[in-house]
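Residues determine shape. We examine one folded chain.
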Amino acid sequence: MRNETLTSLEITVLALACRDPLSSILPRKRLALYPLGPRPHSPLANPRLEALRRFAILYRLHGRDLPAAERERIRAAGYEPRQIAAIEEFLASTGFRQGSAWRLPARSARGWRTIFIGWRRPRCRRARHPIPNRSREPRGAIFVRVSVNGPISTPFCLAIATALLTLSSAPSAAQSQNQVQPQQQRNGDHVVIGVGMGYGPAYPGAEDYRALPLPVIDIAWGPFFANLRNGIGINAVDTDHVTIGASVAMMPGYRSKDAPRGIGELSFGAGARGFMSLKAAGFVATIGATKGFAGGTKGLIADASLSRPVFVSSRFMLVPSVAASWADGKHNDRFFGVNAAQSRASGLRQYRPGSGFSDASAMLTAQYRLTDRISLAATGGVTTLLGRVKDSPIVAHKTQPLGFVSVSYRLGQ
């Protein structure tokens, strides 16, 4: 680095930009709870130095794939080609490693921190992001739209389903630990209703995290059932050890506000679902598949999960669980892919992930029964994208935390 090319102040700005998050160049949100977390970064007072800082952050994330519009922006700020080359040389010499092994736990820790200290956009340095822009942007620049809320997504459904497992099974299971039932007749009819609050990404891999209220619904009456994971359907086989059922379930999507600008909306839909649950040695294993017949993808999603309820006491129970899902090319290409029209509108590269495993998750649910009918539950976990899905241009975070808390009331036995 030659001192005559860049001033010492500019070199200092570059060094600091190597640690600034992407959120520091995003437009400020109208509603921000600053007392619950650190205040967002303020732009530098000198427009030339702010343009330098922005270029350094985006070049650090995108490398030489940075769009020409961003290079025009820094040239318009007064930097000559030899200075831009010196800037790129400096950033390359810093040895910033985007794929370091320690990034994964650090990113997860930062995500969990947002749950407790405020709804703040977490840092992300690994994925290639759409480039945010303010008003009066150069032609061809890329930016995202920021929404203030988001729809329910698949990770929320899994978290709620894990919580419902404890809510619906706790009373009968606790009784079976304390006493032997005089009659072996099984009666699982119940109605569990309640309210909860979920926190997680707007869609798998999204840049934005959302906190939104969600219902708690778990109804089982004879062969009929209704819940958020398996939808509405009937159990053809329902014994103490095996449950086989079919239903109509929700297929996930996302709104245009939550996706990068130019990607557009992927409408939510419905699918025909079949599943089987096995219960043995205290474990509950579930496999299922959903084929969409309405909505944005109409693809096929297969999922598998394994959980193990652990009774700490007659009122307190923990349920660790793991899950994974696979999707066909039709679903993945429409959910995570970027076609030619979307590429022209957004500036992102075209991408088709194809079929394969899409995500895996690990969760822990804690449930406490205040009374025989009123229960409190909290679920926390982490989900990570797999395969070619994680390399999609619309994916900002490969690994993301999520959580769900609820209070519910149980009717029936």
Remarks:
- Residues 154-178 form the longest helix (25 residues).
- The two ends are 75 Å apart (CA to CA).
